[in-house]
Write a structure and sequence with these properties.
alpha/beta, 2 domains, seven-stranded mixed beta sheet, 12 helices, about 40% helix, about 15% strand, globular, binds ligand 0PR
């Protein structure tokens, strides 16, 4: 096999990044372990407890490590303790959160629904399909955050969960989480927060978004995005073990008694790399990275504005800008990895840790060169 992975030096569209060296090393070391079988792979399972405890610290959820997944009866007997597990990514965390809510719902019609903003990731569509729940998509306002009035109008006795996004995929926006919690509680629904991408940046902002700030029941936060862990390492955090138990199935021939994960065999590499990255970077390394990435995003936004492009200002390190399609295509042809929003085809620049100022300068130099070439190609009026 001679293929090489892509280099990150022109990647501006991805929510993944170069893993931290310690995370890469840990991933390699734990490649052949399976935390899905904690009775056999005990050190991987212990690392998962550690991962969940550290994620809990990041999202304001105090977790007794003994209560993390894999401990079966013990955890259940204690009940009510916050917990979670390392998922394959944000998709699994979101699917499982919807599954918890569906299991919990005492739906009047027998067909529970989940209210999501239009800014929600497409994984909620997968969840709705798989779990046969209705997805009620509500609009966002001009600032790309969920329209609270529309959420109030959408919830009813069939609502199993209300979803808020803390760091949206397309615009990096944070929904008003405490208000969504109140609306969810008013109809006895759960509140799920999707912080899959934003979760490792948000602790360093002044926004109210975490378990300690609001009535959050479940949350997605992915080490394999801003957390600088290797893929696959997502996170699902749950306010209490009785909620996680909604997912548990019995595992008769394993030494552990039940399993709440969606996948069975799963890589210990993601788990180990998540712990290694968080031990290296939480909190100072993540803070420094957030500050660097946010400055880069703001600098890029200014540079694009000066050049006359319409820019959606970065709240988190993600800039969206209107760049004409032919120019977008020329940039892609030069090797720049760019992608666009679904609605008005704005180019998204995700300022992940591998995105440096030098890289952005080199991008802008290409943009200017291609732009002036395009301008020269258009005959001026009267020619
Ligand atoms: N929630 C949010 C807010 C997300 O942005 C994403 C993924 C997910 C959930 C789903 O996470 P997983 O992809 O880990 O299951 N957002 C990116 C997207 O779909 C994922 C991505 C990552 C895309 C790397 C490209 C890429 O190179 O745009």
């Amino acid at each position: 096999m001679r293929a090489e992975p892509q280099s990150f030096d022109r990647v501006l569209s991805s929510m993944c990044t170069e893993p931290h060296p310690a995370a890469r090393e840990a991933a390699e070391r734990f490649l052949a372990t399976n935390p899905g079988d904690p009775g056999t792979y005990q050190s991987a399972a212990a690392l998962e407890d550690r991962a969940v405890a550290m994620l809990g610290e990041i999202v304001g959820l105090e977790i007794d490590t003994a209560d993390a997944i894999g401990t079966g009866d013990d955890a259940r007997a204690r009940g009510g303790e916050p917990t979670g597990y390392v998922t394959s990514g944000g998709t699994e965390a979101n699917v499982q959160a919807v599954r918890i809510a569906r299991e919990r719902a005492a739906s009047a019609t027998g067909r529970p629904s989940v209210v999501v903003p239009e800014s929600a990731h497409f994984s909620f569509r997968k969840a709705a399909d798989l779990l046969q729940v209705d997805l009620e998509v509500v609009p966002t306002t001009a600032d790309h955050r969920v329209d609270l009035e529309a959420v109030r109008a959408a919830v009813d006795e069939d609502t199993a969960a209300v979803v808020g996004v803390a760091g949206s995929t397309e615009y990096g926006r944070v929904d008003p989480i405490p208000e969504l919690g109140e609306i969810a509680a008013s109809v006895d629904a759960l509140l799920h927060v999707d912080a899959a991408w934003g979760g490792f940046a948000l602790p360093f902002t002044d926004r109210e978004w975490h378990f300690g700030h609001a009535a959050v029941d479940t949350m997605a936060i992915d080490p394999h995005k801003m957390g600088q862990a290797a893929v696959p390492a997502g996170g699902l955090l749950v306010r209490s073990t009785d909620l996680l138990d909604e997912l548990a199935v019995d595992t008769p021939y394993l030494e552990s008694t039940s399993q709440a994960t969606l996948t069975g065999t799963r890589s210990g590499a993601g788990v180990a790399s998540a712990v290694a990255a968080m031990e290296e970077l939480w909190p100072d390394g993540y803070r420094d990275q957030y500050v660097r990435s946010q400055h880069n995003a703001e600098w890029l936004a200014d540079q694009l504005e000066v050049r006359g492009y319409e820019v959606v200002e970065p709240v988190l390190p993600l800039v969206a800008a209107s760049i004409p399609t032919p120019l977008f295509e020329s940039l892609r042809a030069e090797g720049w990895r760019l992608s666009r929003t679904g609605d008005d085809r704005r180019v998204r620049f995700v300022c992940m840790p591998h995105v440096t100022r030098e890289m952005l300068e080199s991008f802008l130099a290409d943009l200017d060169r291609l732009e002036s070439r395009a301008a020269r190609a258009v005959p001026s009026p009267g020619e």
